[in-house]
Amino acid sequence: MPTDASFEALREAIVRGYIAPDARLVEADIGAAFDMSRGAVRTALIRLEQEGLVVREPHRGARVRRVTDEEAIEILQARAVLEGLAARQAAERIEDAGAERLRARLARQRELLEAGDLLAASDANADLHATLLELSGHATACRLIRSLSSQTVRYQYRTILLPGRAAASLREHTAIVEAVAAGRPDEAEAAMRAHLFNVARAVQRRALPGGIDQASRGVLEGGAR
Amino acid sequence: MPTDASFEALREAIVRGYIAPDARLVEADIGAAFDMSRGAVRTALIRLEQEGLVVREPHRGARVRRVTDEEAIEILQARAVLEGLAARQAAERIEDAGAERLRARLARQRELLEAGDLLAASDANADLHATLLELSGHATACRLIRSLSSQTVRYQYRTILLPGRAAASLREHTAIVEAVAAGRPDEAEAAMRAHLFNVARAVQRRALPGGIDQASRGVLEGGAR
DNA sequence: TTCGACAAAATCGTTGACGATCTTTCCAGC
DNA sequence: GCTGGAAAGATCGTCAACGATTTTGTCGAA
Questions:
Q1: Rounded to whole angstroms, how far apart are CA atoms B190 and B174?
Q2: Which residue is nearest to nucleotide C16 (CA to C1')?
Q3: How many helices (H) and strands (E) does chain A have?
Q4: pTM for the full model?
Q5: In A 13-42, which Cβ lie closer than 7 Å to strand C?
Q6: Is the pLDDT of residue B211 over 60?
Q7: CA distance B72 to A92
Q8: Sign of the dihedral defined by the CA atoms of residues A46, A50, A56, A62, in that order
Q9: DSSP annotation of B24
Q10: How do residues B102-147 score in pLDDT, each as one tens digit?
């Protein structure tokens, strides 16, 4: 009944890949599946289009937007500079409580990696980035990054699986947290930029064998027409 | 009749400040003023909300979002790093034709400044930034920057009026164009970042005496309730 | 068999009306 | 004169139905 919750559910379904890329989003079907009126579906699709998660064509309906590898790289580059800015600002205004929170997240990620649970580590990874964003207090950067991140969640789960990325990721995150906690803005920004540009480069090397699309295709509706 | 044109008209009205910040956007009134159905107004408002140009509250309607000085600074900072990225990429893939276009825009801006036409120079300024963005070929950065710029257009017209900013702006743009045209990515990014951070700092210094809001208040509906 | 035209189905965009919710106004009581 | 509350007005959110457009499927001819 609460349309807001339904909207979040739909958004989650797309972001997490439960609805495959290029799958058609028929207004009536979505309404039935998520228990919302057609009008509500309409507004949801418009919002999601603006967020870059779906594409709508006149009289042809909406489809889940397929993020190409090329575009994923662009998004990671944009995130690199924006999160770099956030890291800088976080380093400028860091306090003891915040530094402690960052170190705690980093420690958890280290434990998960040593335990070999890469998927959980990937979640912890996202957590760390979110915490840093929050500490930066940069509302505009936060908003942009959140929007960008949601478009590449399906990639996130994979990049850490690439050979060598797990260890590198931990190393890079450690550098970021240290710089921020120590209040060194230039260093924090550089570390964050380097980290995300490395991720972008990993994607660029076609290090995702076969691509993400085959892997997640057909989860719900079996892909495109 | 063409809802798309009406949408652009409404958007323009907000971006250019013909509709004052905090002014209420009653769906019926907007529909009458821009000749569009209430449903079309609804979708337009949802899109504009997602773009950050209006805010909508349940059962209370939409209002033009007021961009505070603080937020304008944040936006300029975000633009600084994103346009820095774009400048870097433009420098990496610059060709003779593109370099020539950049130099032409710069020359025009110089002429306008020497002629003392600051407002026209401000437009040329925006033109130069847009050209650089186009040359970068970075679709994601383009999209983000366009969205950010539209939120601060009212500020744009003012910053160049500040004492010393006109000359500084020309100097900074010259550095950017030279670095891009010469194909030096690091330098291009640094120059662009420096330029926009300088603008941000100019705003930060409260160098907009009395703020922009009094100046543009009451243009249409006399401000907020 | 393949191609093109035509009809049928599916889906979206729009309209008008109705109920829900918020804001404002007005009046009684202190 | 001021405060509290109730009624009126304004506006938004939702729903059902209709028209418009695209897509699909069928049929006949080359």
A1: 13
A2: B38
A3: 11, 3
A4: 0.87
A5: 25-28, 42
A6: no
A7: 19
A8: negative
A9: E
A10: 999 999 999 999 998 988 998 899 999 999 999 999 999 999 999 9
